[in-house]
Every structure is written in structure tokens, then in C-alpha cells.
Amino acid sequence: MLTRSLVRRVTLAACTLAAGTLVACGEPRTDSSAVRQEGARTVSAGFEPAAWQPPAESTITHDSLGDAVRRGLALVMHTHDSLPAYAPGRLACTNCHINGGRSVDAAPLAGSHARFPKYMDRTGAVIGLADRVNYCFTRSLGGNRLPVESREMQDILAYIAWLSSGVPVGEGKALPGAEGLHTMPAGLTGDSARGATVFAAKCVACHGADGQGNANIPPGIPPLWGPQSFSVGASMARKGKAASFIWYNMPYLQGKTLSQQQAFDVAAYVTSQPRLDSPGKERDWPVGGTPADVPYATSGHAAYLPPPLLPRANAGQALVPPPSPAQRARSTNKAQGG
Ligand code: HEC
Ligand code: HEC
Fold first, then answer.
1. Which residues lie across from 119 on neighbouring strands?
2. For residue 162, how many C-alpha atoms fall within 13 Å in the half-sphere facing its CB?
3. Distance CA 335, CA 338 (A)
4. Sign, CA torsion 329/144/151/163
5. What was the pLDDT predicted at 333?
6. What DSSP assignment string belongs to 75-143?
7. Which ligand is nearest to the CA of 265?
8. Orientation of helix 64-77 relative to helix 151-163, angle to 10°
9. What is the DSSP string of 248-295?
10. CATH superfamily name and code, 57-174
11. Would 57-174 and 192-318 be classified into the same CATH topology?
12. CATH number assigned to the domain covering 192-318
């Protein structure tokens, strides 16, 4: 049984970890309901998902772990410059996970460390955080799998763990944005012809009429399609996901200024352009339930308005090893058993 003073210390420690955001630091919880709880549950009782903020960069320590966190941050910010063999295109993690994964409106990495391992319905199995990062390397960056045992992967994981400081294991799913890109209202669909007009008016100035971006315009404008952008197997290649990212975040620094219909229209235009293929994509959602806007065919799902596909170099490296039948069995049972 925990004493009052231990509960107080535990709660204050969580508060210190969220330093720089005094909002997270309320009065220490010493009420009897918190005291009655034991062990890890007491820590969770003091955790307030809506108030939590990721730590400030200035708090990264000056020791070996801090050096790994700093290297991981650099890899997330400059992925293609740092790891050209794994990110041969021109995207960096931060181009989508905006502000180094801090933005709650752009599939935040803050808190991810406390959300994994988790069941991923696209894979049909439980996956760990390294596999999740590699799904983004192979699909979202159109690149190659980073060896899980490499120092670079360990540095990226160290960064994500640090960015998630203070979120109790298992509580990451309660944070804003934990489900990835926010869901958009049901019933909206885009029209790519109308989207071309939105693109010309609102996007061309930065991303260019050819959608290829411009590395020389600060902070560096990423490409939206073609061989150096995300592949067809990326979540961003789905019209609903792209509409969400665009509505919340684009035009850059002017999120939520388009109408939601405009966001769907321009998303339809962007996702209709040629992009890299993604090997093994037909095995996605192996237990069914493929969302309607997935642009390629899977078991029980017909491709939805697929874009022209560009051949993929190094296809063998562009794949996260699929789960074994045994790893899949239980989720299959679950789906069949209702
Ligand atoms: C003022 C310049 C600017 C404008 C205008 C702009 N973007 Fe972006 N866009 C960016 C930048 C910069 C990033 C990367 C964000 C970062 O790294 O923080 C980005 C990222 C993106 C991404 C994710 C990365 C990628 O390359 O796929 C998409 C999708 C996107 N923009 C779509 C659009 C659409 C659609 C419009 C028009 C509605 C638009 N943008 C308007 C600058 C701009
Ligand atoms: C083209 C855009 C894009 C790029 C580039 C990208 N990602 Fe992602 N990533 C996403 C989207 C979108 C999701 C969430 C999918 C959803 O909404 O279902 C995601 C999800 C994730 C998740 C799971 C988050 C969670 O807590 O569930 C991790 C971890 C991740 N990405 C890491 C990375 C890393 C590391 C990189 C760079 C090596 C990267 N991503 C590059 C778009 C991107």
C-alpha cells in the first residue's frame, strides 16, 4: 500500500517530466481515491492526457542517451540527407509528422512509445514500434527497411521514447491524435477536376505545378507525387487520410483555412497522380475490413480510384516481413468469431 507521501512524490515526478508546460502541473493528488490505488495505477491516476505536452528540446540530457536522442531527432528532421540508402526519395519524417512529431494534427509521434506494441489491422497482427517505423520507411518514404538492430533505428526509437516522456505505458492511446490523422466527416468525397483548380490556387506556389516541391524554398518543400514521394501503400495515398492531413495542415502554416470539401477535392487530385508501387500491398487487411478509400485491391476489396503506379527499385528491401501464420491466428479467430 502506498503512503500519502509516496503518491505525492510520484505525481510530482510526472509533473517535472512535463517541464516547460506548467499547465500539466496541477496540485499534487493526495485525495483518498488516489491513495487507495496501488503501484502503476496510482501513477496513471495522476496522468492527464489532455494536459500532457512533449518535453522541450532543451531538456535533452548531455550524456550517451541524450546523444542518441539528438541523433534520432536529426534523422527524423533530415531523413533523406542522413539515410539516402533507406530514404532514397525526398521526404523526411517531419514533412508529415510535423514539427518532429509534436503536432497533434499530423499523426503525432509524441506518445507513440506508450502505444506500442499494438494490434495493427492493416497488418492483421501485433507489431512493435520498430516495425511501425519501418512501415513508414518502406511505404511513406517510398524507401527501404532500416535494419531493426542498426544504431540508426535505435536512435530513432530513443528519440520517440524521449518525446513520449511522462506518458505511462498503455496510456498513449488516450492522447489527442493517438489514432493517427484525425477522422474527417463521413459522406464527403473529392472530385479531382475541382481539386486541380484548388491545387493551382493554393498549392502550386510551394509544391510547384509538377508537384515536385523545391528544396531551396525554406524549410524545404517536399514532393507530393512521383518517384521521390510517398508510395501507394502509404496511409497518405488514401483520399480520406490525405484530406485530413491537408485540411488540418495545408497550406503550410494556414491549416483549416480551406473548406473541408476543398481538402477532399485537392486530396483526390494529389492521390490520382503517379506514385511508387508498394510490394506486398495486396496482403494488407488479411482478416478483412479494408477501408473504402484504399487505392489498391486486397482480399474482399476492389482498388478505389488507383493512381498510375511507378516501378519500385529494390522491391525485396521495401517490405516489412509479414507476420507468420501463428502470429496471425488469433486475430483471424477474432474476426471470424465476431
Ligand atoms: C507555403 C508553402 C506551402 C503551401 C502553399 C502548401 N504546402 Fe504542403 N507542405 C509545405 C511544407 C513546408 C511541407 C512539409 C512540412 C514540414 O516539413 O514541416 C508540406 C507538406 C505537405 C504534404 C506532406 C508531405 C508530402 O510531400 O507529401 C502534403 C500532402 C502537402 N503538403 C499538400 C499540400 C496541398 C494539397 C497544398 C495546397 C492546399 C499545400 N500542401 C500547400 C509547404 C506548403
Ligand atoms: C508521407 C507521410 C509520412 C512520412 C514521410 C512518414 N510518416 Fe509515419 N505515419 C504517417 C501517417 C499518415 C501515420 C498514421 C496513419 C493513420 O492515420 O492511420 C503514420 C504513423 C507513424 C507511426 C505510428 C504512430 C502511432 O503512435 O500510432 C510512427 C511511429 C511513424 N509513423 C514513424 C515515422 C518515422 C520515424 C518516419 C520517418 C522515417 C515517418 N513516420 C515518415 C505518415 C508519414
1. 126
2. 23
3. 5
4. negative
5. 44
6. HHHSHHHH-TTT--SS--HHHHSHHHHT-TTS---TTGGGT-SEEETTTTEEE-HHHHHHHIIIIISS-
7. 1
8. 100
9. HHTTTT-TT-S-HHHHHHHHHHHHTS-EE--TTGGGSSTTS---TT-S
10. Cytochrome c-like domain (1.10.760.10)
11. yes
12. 1.10.760.10
Give per-residue pLDDT as tens, 82-108: 999 999 999 999 999 999 999 999 999
Angstrom distance (rounded) from CA 147 to CA 137: 11
Mean pLDDT of the chain: 87
Identify the bridge partners of residue 127 per DSSP, sorted by sequence position. 118
Q: For the chain, what are the domain ranges?
A: 4-45, 57-174, 192-318
Q: In whole angstroms, what is the distance from residue 114 CA to residue 221 CA?
A: 31
Using most ligand atoms within 8 A of CB, pick from 93, 103, 182, 290 the residue to mutate for ligand 2. 93
Indicate yes or no: pTM above 0.85. Answer: yes
Evaluate: CB of 181 within 6 angstroms of ligand 2.
Answer: yes
- Residue 330 confidence (pLDDT): 58
Residue 27's beta-bridge partner residues?
Answer: none
Ligand 1 centroid to Cα of residue 239, in Å, is 16
